[in-house]
Amino acid sequence: GQSLEQPSEVTAVEGAIVQINCTYQTSGFYGLSWYQQHDGGAPTFLSYNALDGLEETGRFSSFLSRSDSYGYLLLQELQMKDSASYFCAENFNKFYFGSGTKLNVKP
Amino acid sequence: DTGVSQNPRHKITKRGQNVTFRCDPISEHNRLYWYRQTLGQGPEFLTYFQNEAQLEKSRLLSDRFSAERPKGSFSTLEIQRTEQGDSAMYLCASSLMSLSTGELFFGEGSRLTVL
């Protein structure tokens, strides 16, 4: 399988900005996706980078640098409802997911 | 709601029994994926279809697992002679053939408990 590394857990306060990193070892993928999953729920799509650079979608942005084998998800103006697990995933026509980062948002 | 539908949502079975899960994708989606997820881990790729053709199956997947998508619409995932290690959430996802948006649409999953 593929190997994507993410921090296992991140804690931040409401209103803050948090960055969740994703490093990978395998190249040649079509792009890097980000998904959110609440406890007991299904993964839902957040953002996708086919090219290097920053993609902005509302409070969420994602970044990819293929030369650095690195991407991140940036969450701004954190809200309590953002407490969830976040996964990066490589697109090889099927997707390989990282083990996820659990985000805890505190008041 | 015309999202991805999976059933049953929960299945408890005894070791050695066979189980089958069904997935109904979004109707216009020609790609369908099966994933397995255990607590604290990301979804693990099992297999995927383009229309009725099974394009790839994970090399890590036991031959006790088989999936079909006979008419290019719904899919079934069968696990034969279940083992306790098969206990997991089985997720189905669908997408258009062009993955230019990088988006998979997931169902709510079928949770399997093997006693």
Describe this structure in words.
The complex is a heterodimer of chains A (107) and B (115). Chain A is mainly beta and 107 residues long. Chain A is 0% helix and 57% strand. Chain A has strands at residues 4-5, 9-13, 18-24, 31-37, 44-49, 53-57, 60-65, 70-75, 84-91, 95-97, 101-106. In chain A, the strands form 2 sheets. In chain A, strands 2, 4, 5, 9, 10 and 11 form a 6-stranded mixed β-sheet that branches. A 5-stranded antiparallel β-sheet of chain A has the order 1-3-8-7-6, with no helix packed on it. Chain B has 115 residues and is mainly beta. Chain B has no helices and 11 strands. In chain B, the strands form 2 sheets. In chain B, strands 2, 4, 5, 6, 9, 10 and 11 form a 7-stranded mixed β-sheet that branches. In chain B, strands 1-3-8-7 form a 4-stranded antiparallel β-sheet, with no helix packed on it.
Quick structural overview:
The complex is a heterodimer of chains A (107) and B (115). Chain A has 107 residues and is mainly beta.
